[in-house]
Design a protein that fits this description.
Radius of gyration: 22 Å
Number of helices: 15
Helix content: 55-70%
Structural class: mainly alpha
Largest sheet: 3 strands, antiparallel
Number of domains: 2
């Protein structure tokens, strides 16, 4: 039986977007002369309402993207898994062409009139769709090296490009997302341990780069160079500490007055903590937690379809990993990295892609509750009565309760 979409998920999304719009306006209502000069060199004239107008326009595009993702047939999406992955790879490669834009020593954006776009955001969602398709195939086996090596090789291609940009934050989030989805799909732990062991020297080599090592030192003791490498983190601590329980009041924060860099993007959570206090920061964290739990519940209800189930898990993990990493950065739990807070931070790429991801979750949430197609059929394959328990009341086949490796164990002989 068809279900309606998950209204609670949509409500949580709307609350996050409203909070984000409020925070963006509060953080950009006072514009520093340095920021005005920075955008003037780009040919952009800033005003008090310039950022919020652009963010509202981005939200409108995001709503269109959400609706398109909600309407696309999941079977069509499954067939497009590889083409979308290839398309995202091509977009990622465009940053090294004349369309690419360099900022802060990194080349991560492409110019798309009238703004810019960050292809790494598309890569994450494309990887989720690809892994959902790959791990739901009948030939996928968690104890087979081939089933593990192929998606890791695909991830490795993107990692090389990320590190060339460089974008260590995107590389880490993609790695965590890929490993998490493979683990849930039932990949044997020995493969994951081997990958971790091989990855340790690579990570050590990467963080030994001078500018990354400077961030690590600032993370370990930001007060040692509070006016240099540790300045941003120290100002974040001051913002969070100044907020107390209920904050200094909406719009009354001081750290946005030319003290905390990137307050409207990567460090917007610090400003929320300052102006709305622990209560406001906890509300944001609670909303993200609720969104993640709704996504997990949607995945459970879609367990009759391995693709839909894995897709819901992947989208939920993608948003949760980004939020957790942003929280960790602004609170000094990990070294500083450029990662926006989904639905809250200023920026078009993250907003549009994450709204599209929620559209896919809403799409899955309105799917069938029992079996995907005909009774006894799962993803086009005939279910075996001995492995599919019967529903005593309805007398129809129903899938077994989800467990790790559900996507491939259903087809094992």
């Amino acid at each position: 039986m068809k279900r309606s979409y998950d209204t609670w998920l949509l409500l949580i999304l709307l609350l996050l977007i409203l909070l984000g719009l409020t925070a963006v306006y509060s953080s950009t209502s006072v514009i520093s002369p340095d920021l005005i000069e920075k955008y003037r060199r780009k040919g952009v004239a800033l005003s008090q309402f310039g950022f919020i107008r652009k963010q509202l326009f981005t939200v409108l595009i995001g709503i269109a993207a959400l609706f398109a993702a909600y309407k696309v047939p999941l079977e069509t999406l499954k067939r497009l898994a590889i083409p979308l992955l290839v398309l995202s790879l091509l977009c990622l490669g465009l940053v090294f062409t004349p369309l690419g834009i360099t900022a802060g020593g990194a080349r991560r954006w492409i110019r798309v009139w009238p703004s810019t776009f960050q292809p790494s955001e598309v890569v994450k969602l494309s990887m989720v769709i690809f892994l959902a398709w790959y791990t739901s195939r009948p030939g996928f086996r968690g104890d087979a090296l081939k089933s593990f090596a192929q998606p890791i090789a695909v991830m490795g291609v993107f990692q090389v490009i990320f590190l060339k940009q460089p974008d260590f934050g995107a590389a880490m989030s993609l790695a965590l997302l890929t490993v998490a989805m493979l683990y849930l799909a039932g990949i044997h732990w020995k493969f994951l341990l081997a990958l971790g062991a091989l990855g340790i020297p690579v990570v050590i080599k990467l963080i030994s780069e001078p500018y990354r090592w400077k961030r690590v030192v600032a993370f370990l003791d930001p007060w040692k160079d509070s006016q240099g490498s540790g300045f941003q983190l120290v100002q974040s601590f001051i913002a969070l500490g100044s907020g107390g329980l209920t904050g200094v009041g909406l719009g009354e924060g001081k750290q946005k007055l030319f003290f905390l860099p990137e307050v409207h993007t990567d460090f917007i959570f610090s400003m929320i903590g300052e102006e709305l206090g622990f209560v406001g920061a906890a509300l944001v964290a609670l909303l993200f937690c609720s969104l993640f739990l709704r996504g997990i519940q949607i995945a459970w209800k879609a367990e009759a379809s391995p693709f839909s189930c894995n897709l819901a898990y992947g989208v939920s993990l993608m948003i949760a990993i980004q939020a957790i990493m942003n929280f960790a950065v602004v609170t000094g739990m990990v070294p500083t990295k450029g990662l926006p807070l989904p639905f809250i931070s200023y920026g078009g790429s993250s907003m549009i892609v994450n709204m599209m991801a929620v559209g896919l979750l809403l799409n899955v949430s309105r799917g069938r509750t029992a079996v995907e197609m005909l009774p006894g059929s799962v993803s086009g394959r005939q279910a075996h009565p001995s492995r599919e328990p019967r529903n005593a009341a309805a007398g129809t086949l129903r899938p077994a309760r989800w467990q790790r490796g559900y996507g491939y164990s259903r087809y094992r002989r």
